[in-house]
Write a structure and sequence with these properties.
By secondary structure, the protein is mostly helical. It has one domain (about 10-270). About 80% of the residues lie in helices and about 0% in strands. The protein has helices spanning about 10-30, 35-45, 50-70, 80-95, 105-125, 125-130, 135-140, 145-160, 165-175, 180-205, 210-235, 235-255, 255-270. Helix 1 (about 10-30) packs across helix 3 and helix 2 packs antiparallel against helix 3. It is globular, with a radius of gyration of 18 Å.
């Protein structure tokens, strides 16, 4: 039944809301917040496919909050920025419709490797991420920039994991935006293409609305806090959060994090 799950204990509800706050914060300033929410939803009794669909409700509402906050501060210019969303949305539709079977294990490790590379790019070249490059922003977006955003959209459509991080990289490195502006655009792009994926999950009955609403409440709070902090503290603060999130995501996707946790568990069991 998609509206309720047996044994919805109060402590699990609080855990889901808390995880939503952390996830919303991470997703707004960087990405990969689903690394927290998806495992927890499955611990609450949801199958992986329903957890994935349920998570999209929170992502949609969290981005709605973030976009609203950034819009009020004039960070988003809809007259010009909306055109950058076109290749992303088009790519996500193509990606969602691709009937290609992929080796998830290989893909996760490849993504993890790219994230390690991104980590060092952000660490060693902070000025690019903090100040942006005004000469690129002022000009008309190039075919290369549109192509990169289209490819990121395809990736988001059929894989999704870590798409926020790659979207930030595309907006900063290819389009020249600083991290504050890039985060605002990232939220706008994901907000525009998430409803398409959400409708598919709804039609297939792969959403649990009870857990989805609790998770959304947390994600919306996290997104609001993160948006306010991004505006108050600027790109330097976002860069620090981004470095932490990327390293955690890379360690998780490459399997290093699981290996470390396994070693710690083995040591604890051996000591006992």
């Amino acid at each position: 039944m998609i509206f309720a799950v047996p044994q919805m204990h109060w402590y699990l509800v609080l855990a889901v809301i808390g995880a939503g706050i952390v996830s919303g914060f991470m997703n707004t300033l960087a990405g990969s917040g689903s690394l927290i929410t998806l495992p927890l939803l499955m611990m609450c009794g949801l199958p992986a496919n329903i957890a994935n669909g349920t998570n999209r409700i929170a992502i949609l509402l969290q981005n709605l909050v973030g976009v609203t906050v950034f819009s009020k501060q004039k960070i988003i210019n809809y007259k010009t920025d909306i055109w950058l969303a076109v290749p992303v949305v088009a790519g996500s539709l193509l990606g969602a419709g691709l009937a290609v079977r992929l080796n998830n294990n290989v893909i996760e490790k490849a993504i993890g490797g790219v994230m390690v590379l991104m980590f060092f790019l952000i660490l060693l070249k902070p000025e690019v991420w903090i100040k942006g490059r005004s000469e690129k922003v002022k000009g008309v977006p190039t075919v290369l920039q549109y192509s990169i955003l289209f490819l990121v959209g395809i990736y988001g459509g059929f894989i999704q994991a870590g798409v926020g991080l790659f979207m930030l990289a595309a907006l900063v490195l290819a389009s020249g935006y600083d991290l504050v502006k890039a985060n605002a655009l990232k939220l706008l792009f994901v907000l525009l293409y998430t409803p398409f994926a959400l409708v598919i999950f709804m039609i297939d009955g792969q959403i649990n609305y009870s857990w989805g609403l609790f998770l959304s409440a947390g994600n919306m709070v996290g997104a609001y806090i993160a948006s306010k902090m991004a505006l108050e503290r600027g790109a330097g603060f976002i860069r620090i959060v981004l470095l932490v999130v990327i390293m955690i995501a890379a360690l998780d996707l490459t399997g290093v994090l699981k290996w470390v946790i396994g070693m710690i568990r083995a040591q604890v069991l051996f000591a006992v």
